Amino acid sequence: MARYQELKEQAWECNMQIPKLGLAIYTFGNVSAIDRGKGVFAIKPSGVPYDELKPKDMVVVDLENNVVEGRMRPSSDTKTHTVLYRNFADIGGVVHTHSTYAVAWAQAMKPIPILGTTHADHLVEAVPCTEVMSDEMIKGDYEEQTGQQILNAFKKRSYNEVEMVLVACHGPFTWGKTPEKAVYNSAVLEELARMAYLSVSINPKVPQLKKALIDKHYQRKHGRNSYYGQK
């Protein structure tokens, strides 16, 4: 374990945040953390409850989906993580959860509209939702195709600017420059999904947030002259 101990511990710590943040119950969801230098990532083992997980249980996998180290089977979503790591070169972690409101939007096959400034603090557009998979995709290499569907949703958008997506009929995936940021993005996504659901429930005709407010809130936090937080 020594060679990958730090990576496994990082992946374990991030996985343990998922139930603490209310983003999953029982065995739902998974987090992975990648070591780009070694070309491997550590991911939660399949079907193991969070309260039973130990750092040593994390499974180390290479970018060809080969298990490099670990006594258990890796997450069933491993191939989806691999697709993202291969194609999103700047990311350091990937998260998949079954958080309630994000899944509700995914099951409805709808993007999460940008309705308020909390959303604009993180994104300048709706949270995208992938196309529904064809029967051929589902019958084929399902987890690989899940990753491909995510890539298709990002043909015309930046994965560095939009670090989250809904997989239609399935649920959310997020990523970030670090696995910790990917977990943060999962928590943010669930909150945006909840707020949007409540807003639409109160006013089904609620309009998209006006561009001036979108730009103001995003730029004050992420722009060249940002002034949010401490310097």
Word description of this protein:
Helix content is 39%, strand content 13%. A hairpin with a 4-residue loop joins strand 1 and strand 2 (40-43). The radius of gyration is 18 Å and the shape is globular. The protein has 231 residues and is α+β, with helices and mostly antiparallel strands. The chain has helices spanning 5-20, 78-87, 100-107, 117-120, 135-139, 142-153, 179-202, 211-222; strands spanning 30-35, 40-43, 59-62, 67-69, 93-96, 164-167, 171-176. The protein has a 7-stranded antiparallel β-sheet, sandwiched between helices. It has a single domain, classed as Class II aldolase/adducin N-terminal domain (L-fuculose-1-phosphate Aldolase), CATH 3.40.225.10.
What brief labels describe this structure?
single chain; 231 residues; alpha+beta; L-fuculose-1-phosphate Aldolase; 7-stranded antiparallel beta sheet; 8 helices; 39% helix
